[in-house]
Structure formats: C-alpha cells, structure tokens
Amino acid sequence: MLIPSIDLLGGRIVQLVQGEKLRLAFDDFEYWIERFARFPLVQLIDLDAAMRQGDNSQLVAQIANRLPVQAGGGIHSIERARQVLDAGAMRVIIGSALFSENGAVNTAFAAELAAGVGAERVVAGIDTKSGRIAVKGWRAQVALTPDEAIPQLEPYAAAFLYTHVDGEGLMQGFPIATAARLRKLTERQLIVAGGIRSQQEVDALDALGADAVVGMAVYTELLAV
After folding, report:
1. pTM (2 decimals)?
2. 46 is catalytic
3. Which of 12, 71, 155, 192 sits CB 3.0–4.6 Å from 89 for a disulfide?
C-alpha cells in the first residue's frame, strides 16, 4: 500500500531533504487534500512540533477531519495523543517519547500509552540515521538499533513506522533488504519511508509485507498518484 505523506512546517506543506534542507513548499492545501482523498491512509506530520519550535495544531485538525490520517510530530504525552485523536486522527505516531536518553526503550510509557488510548491507535516511530535511532526531530540519536527496539515495543503498538533518514527526500530508493529484515522482527503492520521513488519499489515492498510512505516522489510528480 502506498501512503502519501503531508509534512507541515510554518503553516505550509513541505518536503525536506534528510529532515533539514527545505526542497519544496506548498500553500494549496485543498489541491493536495483532494488528490489524497482516495487513499485509505495518509501520513500527517507536524514538523514544527517534532522540532520543538511551535506547532500546526489547527492545520492538523483541519486535515484530519478531511482525510484518514495517522498523525505525528511532537507527541510526548498521553494527553497530547488524545488531543490529536480527538481532533480526528485515526492513529498517532509516537517516536522520541518511546526512548530514553540512556539508550533504553521506555516500555513503561509505551504500556501507559497503549492502556490510555488503545494499542490499536498507536504507531511506533522508529527513525534511524546511520543505523541508530534518531530522536527530537532527527537532531539527536540514542544508542539503540531498530532490531533491539521493535521486539520490546511489539505489545504496545498496532504498527511500526520505520524511516530511513539517510535517504529521506533524496529519491535514491529504499534499502529493500532492510525492509525484509524488519519484517521478520514483528507481526504488526510495517510501514517504511525514506527515498522511495517508484511504483515498482512500492510493489516490491508490498510483496515483502511492508507499506510505503511516499513524499518527495509524489510532490515532484516522479510517482503519479
């Protein structure tokens, strides 16, 4: 399944390269909402909230009421997760809050979150740079690999979102071997992102049992949707 992404920064839809360099920005929300309306799931990320530099809460609510979204970005508490769900999101994506600075998985918070909003509404965000998990808007890392984290989070989430930050926005392809390895680690839905550039790649990931988040390739029209 192809999952189109909407990333929000400064009140606009944007596409960044490796989470840092602004490549594209759009103000025509209606155009993209209409284009993505046929998809069963859309990914919505508040980058300002993820980077701890404000938020786009009103836009998140507006889009979540128009599209079936899993929403993330700066969700660090059960209260905030509930707010996003109440605003219309189907599921919340939790990343940084699942990991402690000492490199441990915060299973206590994961369990509390699952009990508070329902594990079926939680997507665990596993973002990596150079093989290690990246947190705080990809500006920091913890000494933990996806292979170590995923089994510990298995009871508390309905899905795992693995983002290959090294390839994000570059449209150079996603490492299929990584998807195959991750697929063996969990029975939950596996969603991958980072560099996906073609329908053939989406189909190859689907054959492995992984869904694909696509951003830059959609917004540059390299991949037609």
Report:
1. 0.94
2. no
3. 71
